Amino acid sequence: MVVSEVMLKWAMRLYPPLFLQRIWVVNIDKGFKGVHVKIKKSFLNKNYNNSIFGGTIFSAADPFYPVLFHQLLSRKGYKLKVWSKSSSIHYLKPGSSDLYFKISLTDDEIDNAELILNTTGKYMAHHPIDIYNKDGEICVSVMNEVYLRNLNFTDTSL
C-alpha cells in the first residue's frame, strides 16, 4: 500500500508490536529516503539488568529498510515483494537510556537497487544501522539484509 510519509509515520507509531515496545518513529524523510527512530526505555521493555531488552532493539531495527524501499520504489511503478531476509546484531554496550537511530537511503543505493531489479528481478543487499544512546555512544550495530523481488520482471535472456 502506498501512503504518505505522515500516514506511514503514524501507522508505524501505532502498530502494536512497535508501540507496545515503546519504539517511536520520530520522522520519515521526504520521499521515503530515511527514518529517525527512538526506542524509549520503560518498564515495558526493561530487562533484568535494567537496560532495554535486546529483542526490543532488534524489533526496532528490523522493518525500516524494507518499508522505505517498498514505499519509494512503489511510487516509481514497481510491484514488489519486500522483506528483511537476514540480520546480524552486535550488542556493544547496554541500552541503559533511550536509544536512537537514523537510517538513510542514498541516491546511489536507490539507483543500484533499480538497476538490479530491472536486470535480474531480485535485489539483495546488506544495510547497516548503528543505534546510539542519549550520549551519542554506539550501543548496538545491526546489519540488515534486504530482499526485494520485482513482480513485473520478465527474463528476456531465455
UniProtKB/TrEMBL annotation:
It comes from Mucilaginibacter pocheonensis. It holds the Pfam family DUF4442. This is Acyl-coenzyme A thioesterase PaaI-like protein. The lineage of its organism: Bacteria, Pseudomonadati, Bacteroidota, Sphingobacteriia, Sphingobacteriales. Gene3D superfamilies: Hotdog Thioesterase.
